[in-house]
Amino acid sequence: MTSHLPMHLFSKSLFSSKAKVIYLIRNPRDVLVSAYFFWSKITLEKKPDSLGTYVECFLKGNVAYGSWLEHIRGWLSMRVWDNFLVLYYEDMKKDTMGSIKKICDFLGKN
User: What region holds the Sulfotransferase domain (predicted)?
Assistant: First the structure.
């Protein structure tokens, strides 16, 4: 399963299960720009007036899925959980094979 949801919107049963979670973090600047262009093209949402307006909304957490910082904080609180792996998008791009190895090790696959 893949999701963009913040941790507090997940079913509590996830956290008492043996499910493994791979959490991918991306640089907030890149998240902001990517989201701006995504929401500019989609017809279901009110389009941002400008990138500047979107930046203001993003910094206040007034965007889909809420505050990027609160999203990160929520999920990173799970770092102590054995079934939780944090990966960084930028690291995956720089070292794809190393990232694949981390994922395989985490999942117990060789």
Answer: 1-110
Is 8 considered catalytic here?
Answer: no
3-state DSSP percent of the chain in helix, strand and coil, to 5? 55, 10, 35
Q: What CATH number does the domain containing 80 carry?
A: 3.40.50.300
Q: Does 9 map to a domain?
A: no
CA distance 36 to 80: 33
13 domain-assigned: no
**Which structural domain range is residue 74 located in?**
18-107
Give the tens place of pLDDT for each residue, 41-96: 876 667 778 888 888 888 888 887 788 889 899 999 988 889 999 999 999 999 99
Annotated active-site residue in 1, 3, 4, 41: 4
